[in-house]
Design brief:
The protein contains six helices and six strands. By secondary structure, it is α/β, with parallel strands linked by helices.
Length: 161
């Protein structure tokens, strides 16, 4: 299939979530809108906690509702992991950015997150706390002047930011 340059979306969220419903309620319509309005969309996501796993399932359901011919879900790993076959069966693509090779595992996660932000046209986060990798990725995205949507923030609060 021939695609133009994909519209890239990086997703980050906390390892543990209090409200899966809030993620679904806000992420699903956003993903469906992207699938309908962009020629092709590439979703970059990790697999380091509840948000990542749940967001991937929300994207898969949205693709089923809208159609899957214009999107790819790419699992971005900081290093090779056990059970890669399971990942290959679930995600469309898997990549380990070159900047991660040879790094300590914690440093590799930070490098991976920065790489995802740098590639992205849009960064979608679910950040409720001012700490952790998702928070750091959100700050980095804002520093790079990327478009950032925080699903954890109510619309009224967004206007005040």
């Amino acid at each position: 299939m021939f695609w133009s340059e994909p519209y890239r979306v990086a997703l980050f969220g906390h390892r543990y979530l209090d409200s899966l419903y809030k993620v679904d309620e806000r992420l699903s319509p956003l993903v469906k809108d992207l699938l309908r309005t962009k020629e092709c969309v590439e979703f970059y996501i990790g697999r380091d906690g509840e948000f990542d796993e749940y967001a991937a399932s929300v994207i898969k359901l949205a693709r089923r509702d809208v159609g899957t011919d214009n999107s790819v879900i790419t699992l971005v790993l900081p290093y090779s992991k056990a059970k890669m076959d399971d990942y290959e069966n679930y995600y469309d693509e898997i990549t380990i950015p070159d900047v991660c090779y040879g790094k300590h595992f914690k440093a590799a996660i930070t490098k991976r997150n920065r790489w995802m932000v740098e590639q992205a046209d849009l960064v979608i986060v679910f950040v409720e706390k001012d700490s952790g990798g998702a928070y750091t990725a959100m700050k980095y995205a804002k520093k790079l002047e990327k478009e950032v949507i925080n699903l954890a923030v109510d619309n009224e609060e967004k206007a005040d930011e």
